[in-house]
Structures are given as C-alpha cells and as structure tokens.
C-alpha cells in the first residue's frame, strides 16, 4: 500500500509537486497521467527515496520515506523509462544477477528467479548475450527483469513500455496483470491511453504539480461526457488551467 499525505517538493523557487494526497491499495494498478513537466517523475522519485519531500509524508507498506529509507527500498522496484542503467559488457543474465545480489538473494533462489523472469518476458534467446548490442526494446526487457528480481511488493514504473514493440508491450501488459493477481501494488505512468484503459483500476491526473483528478475512468467519462481518453485527458487539463 502507498499513502501520500499533502506531499510537496520544491526546488528553490520552483514547486514541482504541490500538496498531493493519494492512496494506492495492495493489488491495485493506478495509472499516473500528466503532460511533460507535470510532476509525475518527481513524485515517483520521492516514493523511491531518491528525493526527500519538502513537506508532507509518504508511507510505503507502513514505512516512512523520510525515516525508514532502507526498509522502503526493500519493498519497491522502480524503473524510469529514460534511465535503463545496464552494464553493456555484462550479459542480460549477469546484469539481473548483479542487482539480485545487491538485494542479498541467495544464489539458488536468484538463479530460479532469473529463469522465471526470462520466461515471462521471453528473453531466453538472448539471456546469455552481452547487452551492449541489444536493441532498445531488448534492453528495456532486461531493465524490467532487474526491477522485479527481488519480487517487490510495490512496483513503480515510469514510462515502462518506452522502446518496446507491439509484441513486447503485450508481454509487459500480461506481466502487469500477473503481478496484480499476486496482490502487488503497481503505479505506472504512461502516455499510451490504450495501456491505461486496459490495465488500470484507477487513474490520477497531474497538472503543474497538482493532483487534479483521482478516480475511475467510468467516473471521469461521466463527468465530462467523452468516451475518447485523449479527449478526456485534454478536457481535464483545460478545466484545471482555467482555475
């Protein structure tokens, strides 16, 4: 479970996130929407303990991001879409294993987990090849496996399907559904409205650092009278801009 209470983040004179309150339950998939610069990544970085809130509190499965950072990090797996961060000279297996070792996973369990993730993400053909020659989509799959290697209860994904082709994106969606069925809490940001509609129980929309909508898509459609998600999104932003 993720709990945010009046979370604010300021960088000198810039307020990137302003008084955001939100709860995400175990077994729930929440889609985080907003234009570039809306504060989505900053919010997720605070959840991951990379940034410290200026004000407010974030609690991850009962642990405070301010005071219990080590415990929080054990609970979460996080992927930022533009930051794959793999070691090109290592194979896909070695990259995943390295991060698994950082989490203290026993060798036998780690080997089994790598095989499980390789099968789920269909990486068997290149698991033992160096990642330096991989396509963007192949690297993204390895990065997703690295994020999930310690079987985290909270999964934070910022633009996770960046670089994935249609087939790989379909595999990713199946993985999200599998994690949801296992009771994991999942937050992901995306500009692909089709993904949001297929995967999310609720959505949260940010604009200029503020949370301007939180709820289900049927409720959002009822509020604005549109069925097209792109049009709905633009309507929410237009209304928020008038305030």
Automatic annotation (TrEMBL):
Recorded family membership: Belongs to the ABC transporter superfamily.
Species classification: Bacteria, Bacillati, Bacillota, Bacilli, Bacillales
Superkingdom in the source lineage: Bacteria
Protein name in the entry: Sodium transport system ATP-binding protein
All residue ranges annotated as the ABC transporter domain in the record: 2-233
GO molecular function, one term: ATP binding
PROSITE patterns found in the cross-reference section: ABC_TRANSPORTER_2
Pfam families: ABC_tran
Sorted UniProt keywords: ATP-binding, Nucleotide-binding, Transport
Keyword Nucleotide-binding set for record: yes
Keyword field contains Transport: yes
């Amino acid at each position: 479970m993720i709990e945010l209470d009046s979370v604010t983040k300021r960088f000198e004179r810039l307020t990137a996130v302003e008084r955001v309150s939100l709860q995400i339950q175990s077994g729930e998939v929440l889609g985080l929407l907003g234009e570039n610069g809306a504060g989505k990544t900053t919010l997720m970085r605070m959840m991951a303990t990379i940034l410290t809130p200026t004000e407010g509190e974030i609690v991850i499965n009962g642990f405070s991001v301010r005071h219990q950072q080590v415990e929080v990090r054990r609970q979460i797996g996080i992927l930022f879409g533009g930051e794959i961060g793999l070691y090109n000279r290592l194979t896909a297996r070695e990259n995943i294993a390295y991060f698994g070792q950082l989490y203290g996973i026993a060798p036998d369990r780690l080997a089994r987990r790598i095989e499980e993730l390789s099968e789920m993400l269909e990486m068997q053909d290149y698991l033992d090849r160096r990642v330096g020659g991989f396509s963007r989509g192949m690297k993204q799959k390895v990065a997703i496996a690295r994020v999930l290697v310690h079987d985290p209860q909270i999964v934070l994904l910022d633009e996770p399907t960046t670089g994935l082709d249609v087939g790989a994106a379909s595999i990713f969606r199946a993985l999200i559904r599998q994690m949801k069925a296992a009771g994991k809490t999942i937050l992901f940001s995306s500009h692909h409205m089709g993904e949001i509609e297929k995967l999310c129980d609720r959505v949260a929309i940010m604009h200029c650092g503020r949370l301007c909508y939180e709820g289900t898509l049927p409720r959002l459609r009822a509020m604005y009278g549109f069925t097209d998600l792109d049009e709905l999104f633009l309507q929410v932003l237009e209304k928020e801009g008038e305030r």
